[in-house]
Amino acid sequence: MNTDKVILADNCEYSSDCEETQLNNNILVVGGSGSGKSMSIAEPRLLETKHTSLIFTLSKRKLIHKYAPLLLRRGYQLWDLNFASPENSNIAYDPIQYVKNHNDIRFLAKSIVMANPRKEFTTADPYWDDGATSLLSAIIADQWKKGGSFADVLEMIGKLKIAEHKNLIITTLDSNFEMLERKEPGSFAVNCWNSFKQLPIKTAACMFSALNVTLDTLFTPELRRMMAMPNKVKFEDLASKRTVLFVTTSAVNPSLNSFVNMFYAQAIKELFEYAEGCPRGVLPIPVHMLCDDFACGSRILLFPEYIAIFREKGISVTLMLQSESQLEAMYGERNTKTIINNCDTYVYMGGMDIDTCRHISVRLNWPLDDVMYMPIGQVVVFRRGERPVVTRRYNVTANPLYQEMCRIYEQRFVQKAVG
């Protein structure tokens, strides 16, 4: 079987064949800002992508333009999903497109409700999130049945008004669901709607208000227009055709991270389900997800559970962080340990976070000072079952293929400027 080479540092090149290494391909990369995560980890990954499909989240568009010629030359299908400037995408993402049953509807609604960045810091009763999920599930189910898009869901919610009459909730969508109940009594949409309608008016109003804030944060007008584009992401194509999907977010608009992580939640679920229907339950073409600034967005629903079984489905991930503390702030202590423990490779590139340094000190059996003041450019590579390797970060600029890509990029840039 053809597999890609994984370059992590000087003299640290590994096979991505899990049967050969007996390890999973999940990689945790921790390094402070400017430590070289993108240049010495992400760019070598692009250079060596030959046989797997790749989902790459990035904010530096230069990398797309630099590596597109190489990937096209290798016969890859290139998708550009640009959340920062949706109008420049060559592919669209409409969450409702991947709904196949009521479980998918509930999963999608939950992903959206939990994508609110404020969920990281709240200790509110989950009852509130459950209520918002029921409301959103009802409207998604209604539009899905009608063949609508997620833009239609958002339009329907935009028309929703809530009031009280004789201690009962009345809304502007009552007639719609009353008609649906006459046609399909006991349907999923009706049951979800009735669950919402049974809430006290003040509770329902607060839930609806919170849901609106989340939707306004996630779905900008530009994203809503992008969802209407005809060419949509097909997750099964990632597993059946060699494909690189570039997912662009913004370094100055963190609200997009919530939408990106919701996208990842749905992508992982779709890939898992596709793998279930494949021979041996494994994707025909392995899919690797390269997540830059992984902990700067919001939580990916069920990610700690999914990463534990990535390997058996042919899925893997590279998580790039500035510190372990970032991950803990996002997922909590227990889930952070689960995520770290399910990465058979850990690349440490230095940093100032004291808690991370303590953990590395224990892993290496080094004095804390030696970790805290590790020289710039020094890297430690941990692989399960092997002694740690202390080396230098990979100098990608010395790679002949990298130099060729830079020359092509610069020539195109000059031609464009002259033209």
Question: What key attributes describe this structure?
Answer:
419 residues; alpha/beta; Rossmann fold; 2 domains; two-stranded antiparallel sheet; 18 helices
Structure report:
By secondary structure, the protein is an alpha/beta fold. The chain contains 18 helices and 13 strands. The strands form three sheets. A nine-stranded mixed beta sheet has the order 5-8-4-9-10-3-11-12-13, with helices on both faces. Strand 12 (378-383) and strand 13 form a beta hairpin. Helix 4 packs antiparallel against helix 12 (255-276) and helix 5 (126-145) crosses helix 9. The longest helix is centred in the middle third of the chain and has 22 residues, at 255-276. The relative contact order is 0.19. The mean pLDDT is 90.
CATH class of the largest domain: Alpha Beta
Mean pLDDT metric: 90
Strand fraction equals 15-25%
Look up the CATH topology of the largest domain.
Rossmann fold
Largest sheet composition: 9 strands, mixed
Quaternary structure of the protein: single chain
- Our count of helices gives 18
Instruction: Examine the secondary-structure arrangement and name the CATH architecture of the largest domain.
Output: 3-Layer(aba) Sandwich
Count up the domains: 2
Quantity of strands, as a count: 13
> What are the segments in which pLDDT stays under 50 over at least 5 consecutive residues?
none
Question: What Rg is obtained from the alpha carbons, in whole angstroms?
Answer: 23 Å
CATH superfamily of the largest domain: P-loop containing nucleotide triphosphate hydrolases
Q: Which structural class fits the helix and strand makeup?
A: alpha/beta
Helix content: 40-55%
| Beginning-to-end CA distance, first to last residue | 45 Å
Strand numbers in spatial order across the main sheet: 5-8-4-9-10-3-11-12-13
Principal-axis shape: globular
